Amino acid sequence: MPQNSQYRKAEDIVAKIKRILGDFPGYRALHADGRLYKGTFRANEAARRYTRAVHLQGAEMPVTVRFSKGGGDPYAHFGSTVGMATRFYLDDGRVTNLIMLSQKLFIANSIDQFVGLLDAGLPAEPGGPPNLAGLKTFLAANPNSARVFQMRAESPAPVSFAHTEFNSVHCFRWVSAEHVETLARCHWVPVAGIKGQPPADLKEENVDILYAELEERLAREPVHFDLVLELAEPGDPVDDATALWPEGRRRVVIGRMTLTAPASEKDTGDPVMNHDPTVLTDGIEPTDDPILQIRRGVYEVSAASRSGGWRGGCPFGGGEKR
Ligand code: HEM
Predict the structure, then answer these.
(1) Where is this region: Disordered (predicted)?
(2) CA atoms of 189 and 248, how far apart (whole Å)
(3) Atom 23 in ligand 1: residue holding the nearest Cα
């Protein structure tokens, strides 16, 4: 899709997300509530077999992670969907992002299907509840999406970010220095082991419980995640964010992250922290997954709207108020 029409679509998508989930000015349209942490990452020897990406050649480098709640309401309780947005700070001043979810799959596999889902859920009047009957009809006609909603409804909630596995959902093309290409999804696997709890238990807790837990933990000890590639086999769908691959695909650990302390946007020098998942480096390429492709525009529109950017004047100087 040409980039300018992608941005027009993205504006429509962000506006519809806000109509369904609520508009909280200054916050991300999704994953509205989150906190930043800092640490380091070091790739191991295996990484080089799969990619020539500069941050995966074995040198230790700084990272930040924004852990977040999945929804649009920053004051909501935690649920079973949480996010982990990692930024790697490269030696030459560039950054690259790796964005993951506690869920394995996304709820649509094309832009039309996602917009169809939003349209089905739009409230009858501004500020009204989502159209549940419309969503039910949509899901009956879209079994791939219905399966993911079901899977998400049955998934446990985190007890701690440090005990949660995160998933890239999308598959990427990993390219080595020898030009060997490998299709793989990736995961952050908690070194402390995976544990969950019923989502209802989180509703009894403070709305910031998982951040408080992590901060207490970090005051005692660092928190580690292994970066793991899950290798596709011939015939596995590589551009369908609603399709699970069969169990038992080969998994290779390619590095370890060590988180040590809370951080702030001020520490990073980037007050907006747009974790665009298509900010990649040579050696990791996007597939043709249309959901991955549209995310670039969507995140830019959401970042612009929450920072007062291109349509509302820039808070850091310059820019025109409408
Ligand atoms: C069409 C599909 C999607 C749409 C429309 C969408 C929309 C959004 C929006 C608007 C934001 C806030 C951006 C900002 O203001 O910085 C966001 C953040 C996020 N999204 Fe998505 N998203 C989609 C798919 C996905 C998928 C497949 C994943 C799986 C990895 C994902 C994971 C996240 C995470 C972890 C964040 C938080 C980023 C941060 O902490 O800064 N999203 N998404």
Answers:
(1) 262-287
(2) 16
(3) 295
Residue carrying structure tokens 């598959």: 171
Ranges of each domain in the chain: 3-306
Q: Catalytic site residue 31?
A: yes
Helix 111-121 and helix 132-141, axial crossing angle in degrees, nearest 10 = 150
Amino acid, res. 38: K
CA distances from 200 to 7, 21, 155 (A): 37, 20, 12
267, 234 contact by CB (below 8 A):
no
Query: Terminal CA-to-CA distance of the chain, rounded, Å?
Result: 29
In the CATH scheme, what is the code of domain 3-306?
2.40.180.10
Q: Cβ contacts of residue 155 below 8 Å, gap of 6+?
A: 80, 81, 102, 103, 196
Tell me the pTM. Answer: 0.94
Q: Whose CA is nearest to atom 10 of ligand 1?
A: 29
Instruction: Give residue-wise pLDDT tens across range 213-242.
Output: 999 999 999 999 999 999 999 999 999 999
In sequence order, what are the residues at sequence separation of 6 or more whose Cβ sits closer than 8 angstroms to the Cβ of residue 45? 58
Ligand 1, pocket-test mutation among 80, 295, 307, most atoms within 8 A of CB: 295
> Residue 226 burial (CB < 10 Å; 0-12/13-18/19+)?
middle
Question: Are 103 and 109 in contact, with CB atoms under 8 Å apart?
Answer: no
Interval between CA 177 and ligand 1 midpoint (Å)? 31
Residue 16 CA, ligand 1 centroid: distance in Å: 14
